[in-house]
Amino acid sequence: MQENTAQKEPRAWWKEAVIYQIYPRSFMDANGDGIGDLAGITSRLPYLRELGVDVLWLSPIYASPNDDNGYDISDYRAIMEDFGTMADFDALLAAAHRMGLKIVMDLVVNHTSDEHPWFIESRRAKESPYRDYYIWRPGKAGKEPNNWESCFSGSAWQYDAATDEYYLHLFSKKQPDLNWENPKVRDEVYDLMKFWCDKGIDGFRMDVISMISKDQRFPDGPVKPDGYGDFSPYCVSGPRVHEFLQEMNRRVLSHYDLLTVGEAAGVTIEEAKKYARSDGKELGMVFQFEHVGEGNGKGSIIEKWTTGKPEMPKVRAILNKWQRELAGCAWNSLYLDNHDQPRCVSMFGNDSPKWRVRSAKMLATCLHMQKGTPYIYQGEELGMTNTRFHSLADCRDLEEINAWHQYVDEQKRVSPETMLACFNNVARDNARTPMQWDASENAGFTTGTPWLAVNPNYREINAAAETGDPDSVYAYYKKLIALRHTHEIIVYGTFEPLLEDDPAIYAYARHLDGQTLLVACNWTDHEVPCTLFSDRGEGEELISNVKTEKERTLAPYEARAVLYGKAEA
Ligand code: GLC
Ligand code: CA
């Protein structure tokens, strides 16, 4: 085993922090209209303080017609009416800061809403001063300018009769893409970022930031099974993306002390090293998507719509690769859950009553002991699970609704039953059911009718039950977070993969200043042999999810982390 203490990592507060993501629509409703809001978040700050997280990342709270739940912004300097007012925001920020909690905002600048004044002006006339804020092209022989498919089904181009041209939207047609080639657009973005920085926010999570630079030739993409073309070779980490981010860094980021994380679907290791370069010229870290996309191959019906589950050895190979390759040159983010993913205990663990709690703790151990900044998505700390959709009427997400119309209704490539099975497995609404606060009606989320039904299991799985229970998933997350704050090895130790051929155990070691932390996690529902700890002798157990451990085996879904050696003075 290599006990190296490689070159010391440059320190930063955001490397030592644990981030908690809030999806405001589903977190806490203070006024009974069925929609979460800022006053609701403020009322729950003590819960978050008690959990021990350092930073809250708020999914978008800006003015929006809500085609994509706030990821379609019509005014970057105003608060969504459903969520409250700017005064509510200022109160939230001040209260959070008083409690030592930082706030990171979602920055959605690949696109705006089609109801943003820039777009309304842009679509009015070809001569409009705002025309070039967006990406307009004439049709080709009466058809779309190219074959690109939008992420939310159908063509990525929308015809607009007013000027007889098409505009590009990589997401919904109510999310037209901004034209980053235009320096005025970049100036606007930097200005709005400064507006929020000057209010005192602590960072940005940058929505699909890997897609802001498009290949200006706009060529057809490789044809996919559904007949549309894939835009990613021409838009993901496009020609000028690093130039733009370095400019953003010079003009804005470098003037503040911020956490920055770029959502970078499709990002490769080589690209990630540029985005998250340790010289700080672009971003602090990126979200890569390989491990959460691992299930797609198996049982895939169409693209992301799958009934398959990821296989641990493949997930391990992906995460270990990111650990190895970014070591010493860029910083990792660590996550299994967010508002676009199914619940991790349902996807990677086992959400049956018998194993839910234990497997949720196992997954948390496996992730939180790795090197990088961990992200917890609301309810993950309770072991919240996927919900059940009985028909399309139960769904709210436009991705689900559009996919259903395209694949079930129009193309008839999938039966309604199969599509529902896929939804129950991977639909984004699984993550968006309201936060489960207590066993009262609607899980204590609202006194009204929730905008998306609560998961029926809220009577068993809820914060009130778990905060008082030392064996709960919540108590376990709290301990994991505290360990990261007290043990430098968890933050800065080097990462060494172990047992990389084991079919059941995900194991690794961390090393720092003569100490070693051994972590072993059994991802299966059966007992497996494991001599990692017995071979090593006496150590200090930092955390485990099983009460009576056996020396040479791991119980089903057991996770253990043991520290060896004395820290050098
Ligand atoms: C990101 C967001 C997702 C949104 C999309 C378009 O992937 O996380 O929720 O739908 O961007 O803004
Ligand atoms: Ca409300």
Automatic annotation (TrEMBL):
CDD domains linked to this entry: AmyAc_SI_OligoGlu_DGase
InterPro entries for the chain: GH, GH13_cat_dom, Glyco_hydro_b, O16G_dom_2
Domain Glycosyl hydrolase family 13 catalytic: 21-432
GO molecular function, one term: alpha-amylase activity
Any one GO BP annotation for this protein: oligosaccharide catabolic process
SUPFAM superfamilies per record: (Trans)glycosidases, Glycosyl hydrolase domain
Keywords: Glycosidase, Hydrolase
Pfam family, one: Alpha-amylase
Family classification: Belongs to the glycosyl hydrolase 13 family.
Protein name (record): Alpha-glucosidase
Organism, as annotated: Selenomonas bovis
